[in-house]
Amino acid sequence: MPAKAPVKMPSETAARGAWAGAMGDLLPGLLLCLAVTALAIALQAGEEHLTGHPYVEALVLAILIGIAIRTAWMPGPRFKAGIAFSAKQVLEVAVTLLGASVSLGAIVASGPALLTGIVAAVVLTILASCAICRGLGLPVRMALLIACGNAICGNSAIAAVAPVIGADSRDVAASIAFTAVLGVLMVLGLPLFVPLAGFSEHQYGVLAGLTVYAVPQVLAATVPISLLATQVGTLVKLVRVLMLGPVVVALSLLAPHLPAEGATGKAAPSRLGFFKLVPWFILGFLALATARSLGLIPDAAVAPLAKLAGVLTVVSMAALGLGVDVRVLARVGARVTLAVTGSLLVLLAISVLLIRGLGLS
To answer: TM spans, by residue (predicted)?
Structure first.
């Protein structure tokens, strides 16, 4: 007798159908975000070929391209699920993977005085920036985005903090857009501090590491000065980036107590379990950072993981841009510009004072 075909259980069939349906819902929006990502990366590559440095990174280009597309054409309902998935879940995976590129050894070797200065600069800048933003009447979540962006690592910090505090995509896009503009101006203007402040090459490297937003921008700001400035600036910048983990964990504990904003805001619960207070991707980030420090992640795997994290972040920024109405940005532009500028000036002042106070030479 011929063998009978295996009978599929109804639950198995339903599960497969649900999975296929979910993928079908995500695919149009996800493909759109990937197309924007590919264009942004290609533009950055062209920029590097022409100038030698990515003054405007693919991450920024992706959100600007997304905003431009959203202004000219509103994606229909079939794109919404994929865009939302790219803006949230893809970003969470990217933040987790960033932990694989962090090693505690370089931080310990840099010395206690410099480490103390970096931590102090980040904490003081966050507090001062929040005060400036709130004084200008910005919402508390946007104030936190701008403060963390200025204090830690610009766009990447904003992208990492946003899902933790439940920030609106419009606030994220506005914060990144204006922070990106000033980030480029910092790269162009910071070398003036060498003659004006009388800084040594080492001191200038510390200043660049404390104030410039992205690692590629630190290279662009220090390479024209000297190799020493580049090495010091890169080390300080990497240590500063590591502050993102503790800051995001602290904000995850603060998030349930933030006030609701807007008509659709929801009051945060007063009591939550640990795994809801500390998001899974932050735990993943810390786990990978620990594994990297213990030598459990081979050196050969670090660069590919960091590259993948960078690409996924660009995808999520493309999604954020696609969800932003540029008219909203125009309405908040003046206040956000003042807030970001004021926060950046505070960061510069704090950094100069710390360099002088710590006697770094």
So the answer is: 52-69, 90-108, 114-136, 143-166, 172-194, 206-229, 235-256, 277-295, 301-324, 336-355
Q: Are 347 and 210 in contact (CB under 8 A)?
A: yes
Helices (H), 255-298: 274-277, 280-293
- Nearest CA among 346, 313, 272, 338 for reference residue 134: 338
Give one DSSP letter per residue of 78-144, joined into a string: HHHHHHHHHHHHHHHHHHHHHGGG--HHHHHHT-HHHHHHHHHHHHHHHHHHHHHHHHTT--HHHHH
Burial class (CB in 10 A: 0-12, 13-18, 19+), 82: buried
Query: What pLDDT band is residue 109 in, cutting at 50, 70 and 90?
Result: low
Cα–Cα distances (Å) from 265 to 81, 241, 277, 287, in that order, read: 21, 31, 18, 32
Q: pLDDT, tens digit, for every residue of 76-102?
A: 889 999 998 998 888 888 878 877 876
Both tokens of 51, joined, read 């100038």
